[in-house]
């Protein structure tokens, strides 16, 4: 059972029982020094999207305490100027060489790219001061260590705090939290090693300082599996496959390009995402009339099986190290060369025109398109069910499969489009989305859409209606701040 000597934990009802969670908020900031007892310096190594957001959030939350937040960068890093622009400087000791910052810090938060961390973790481990806590926001390093026969150094705490959203979301919602207490991105946390008995409170303090509305427990292995699978499936890869395949379907059916774009990309990132965020998965179907429900039902039951098969395949390849090896091999192959972009297919040339139509109509995306909704909800439910069958906790399932999508990533996709998001996410996520997105697209075009011409499978619909995810989402919704992310 999870306990804290500092924070008041509470339980959340989930299918089959309860889970212990921490409800966040700025009223908890005065407790941070106590929860971080023994930590006088936090080193954030890396200045990618997560590093930039987390370093700033930690610094702002700890303002007025005797805990310093410093940023460590590799020599010659192009990110140094941006870090200075955000107030981290060599002069005041809050910006420095990555290994020097590591050596001086009591909590070292490792936020460099996955492949770089895999390549350089031995240097970082060797630089750690005695007893320092290692902090991660992703379990990728654990997977790499297991794959290579390595391990974390003994005598050091190892914790993870993993925001369920992209770095820009972590910062933007934190800033919104200055006006609406509790606004932020949910986080999971894991305690992998706890030699001094203080790891849980340190992890919870880290999450509170990031502005997480609620924090739930997982393991480093479970987080790694769900996170890597999720970004290859419904968070990024599958979304790309869905919108490309639907655009083609609607064009072949006679829609002009802008309408086909609106029915696919605009509909998922607008009314479908908003409905799920506010009212849950069942509400999407319930928003349709009888004719629309029939279309939804046929699309849902035709899509669920093919989507579930691919999610299960991704999961197996992540679990056995295949996906991890593919990322590391790709990094070696690409080096510093930029990756080619996916935004060149015909539909993405219509993005600006579709966005203009949205503005002209004054609508957030129009009504839910029943076929698009059936395909998307089936894919999301397939991931939920695969995670549940693999034994993941329900907080993790709904955050990695639903909440992160509809409250963080899809709003950004709506503002900029899906192709932009795939081309500008982390290298690990980008590689995975590019590998698996076409697999989903092919499965939908060749298997699901032809099957959708036949009557719906009533057993699959009954399973959807009684799925435990609805109960889990209803519990999570009680903790949702009354604010939507501002994407600028």
UniProtKB/TrEMBL annotation:
Q: Which Pfam families match?
A: KARI_C, KARI_N
Q: What are the recorded GO MF terms, alphabetically?
A: isomerase activity; ketol-acid reductoisomerase activity; metal ion binding
UniProt keyword list: Amino-acid biosynthesis, Branched-chain amino acid biosynthesis, Isomerase, Magnesium, Metal-binding, Oxidoreductase
The yes or no answer to whether the keyword Oxidoreductase is present is: yes
Residues recorded as binding Mg(2+) 1, renumbered to this chain, are 227, 231
**InterPro entries from the UniProt entry:** 6-PGluconate_DH-like_C_sf, 6PGD_dom2, KARI, KARI_C, KARI_N, NAD(P)-bd_dom_sf
- Sites binding Mg(2+) 2 sit at 227
Q: Where is the KARI N-terminal Rossmann domain?
A: 22-222
**So which cofactors does this thing need?**
Mg(2+)
Pathway listed for it is: Amino-acid biosynthesis; L-valine biosynthesis; L-valine from pyruvate: step 2/4; Amino-acid biosynthesis; L-isoleucine biosynthesis; L-isoleucine from 2-oxobutanoate: step 2/4
GO BP terms, alphabetized: isoleucine biosynthetic process; L-valine biosynthetic process
This protein's superkingdom? Bacteria
Domain (KARI C-terminal knotted) ranges: 219-361
Family, per the entry?
Belongs to the ketol-acid reductoisomerase family.
Family annotation (PANTHER family): KETOL-ACID REDUCTOISOMERASE, MITOCHONDRIAL (PTHR21371)
Q: What is this protein called?
A: Acetohydroxy-acid isomeroreductase
Q: Which organism is it from?
A: Streptomyces phaeolivaceus
């Amino acid at each position: 059972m999870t306990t804290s000597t500092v924070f008041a934990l509470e339980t959340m009802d989930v299918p089959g029982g309860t889970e212990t969670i921490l409800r966040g908020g700025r009223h908890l900031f005065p407790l941070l020094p106590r929860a971080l007892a023994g930590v006088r310096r936090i080193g954030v190594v890396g200045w990618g999207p997560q590093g930039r957001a987390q370093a700033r959030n930690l610094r702002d939350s700890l303002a007025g305490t005797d805990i310093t937040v410093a940023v460590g960068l590799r020599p010659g890093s192009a990110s140094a100027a941006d870090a200075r622009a955000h107030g981290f400087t060599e002069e005041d000791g809050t910006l420095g060489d990555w290994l020097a910052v590591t050596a001086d810090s009591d909590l070292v938060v490792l936020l460099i790219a996955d492949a770089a961390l895999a390549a350089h973790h031995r240097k970082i481990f060797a630089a750690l001061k005695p007893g320092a806590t290692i902090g991660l926001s992703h379990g990728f390093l654990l997977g790499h260590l297991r794959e290579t026969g390595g391990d974390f150094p003994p005598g050091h705490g190892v914790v993870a705090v993993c925001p369920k959203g992209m770095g820009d979301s972590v910062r933007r919602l934190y800033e919104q939290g200055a006006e609406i207490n509790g606004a932020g991105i949910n986080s999971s946390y894991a305690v992998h090693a706890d030699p001094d008995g203080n790891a849980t409170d340190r992890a919870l303090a880290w999450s509170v300082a990031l502005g997480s509305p609620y924090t739930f427990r997982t393991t480093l292995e479970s987080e790694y599996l769900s996170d890597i699978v999720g970004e290859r499936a419904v968070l990024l890869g599958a979304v790309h496959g869905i919108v490309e395949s639907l655009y083609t379907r609607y064009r072949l059916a006679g829609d002009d390009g802008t309408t086909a774009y609106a029915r696919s990309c605009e509909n998922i990132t607008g009314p479908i995402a908003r409905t799920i965020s506010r009212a849950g998965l069942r509400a999407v179907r319930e928003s349709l009339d009888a004719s629309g429900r029939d279309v939804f039902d046929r699309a849902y039951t035709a899509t669920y099986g093919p989507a579930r098969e691919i999610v299960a395949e991704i999961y197996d390849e992540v679990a056995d190290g295949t996906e991890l090896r593919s990322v590391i091999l790709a990094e070696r192959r690409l080096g510093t060369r930029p990756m080619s972009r996916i935004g060149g297919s015909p539909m993405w040339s219509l993005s600006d025109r579709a966005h203009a139509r949205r503005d002209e109509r004054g609508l957030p995306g129009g009504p839910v398109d029943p076929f698009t909704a059936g395909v998307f909800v089936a894919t999301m439910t397939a991931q939920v069910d695969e995670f549940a069958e693999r034994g993941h906790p329900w907080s993790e399932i709904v955050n990695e499969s639903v909440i992160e999508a509809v409250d963080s990533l899809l709003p950004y996709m709506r503002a900029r489009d899906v192709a932009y998001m795939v081309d500008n996410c982390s290298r690990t996520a980008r590689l995975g989305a590019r590998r698996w997105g076409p697999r989903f697209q092919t499965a939908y075009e060749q298997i699901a859409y032809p099957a959708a011409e036949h009557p719906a499978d009533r057993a699959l619909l009954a399973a959807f209606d009684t799925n435990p995810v609805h109960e889990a989402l209803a519990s999570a919704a009680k903790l949702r701040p009354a604010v939507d992310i501002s994407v600028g």
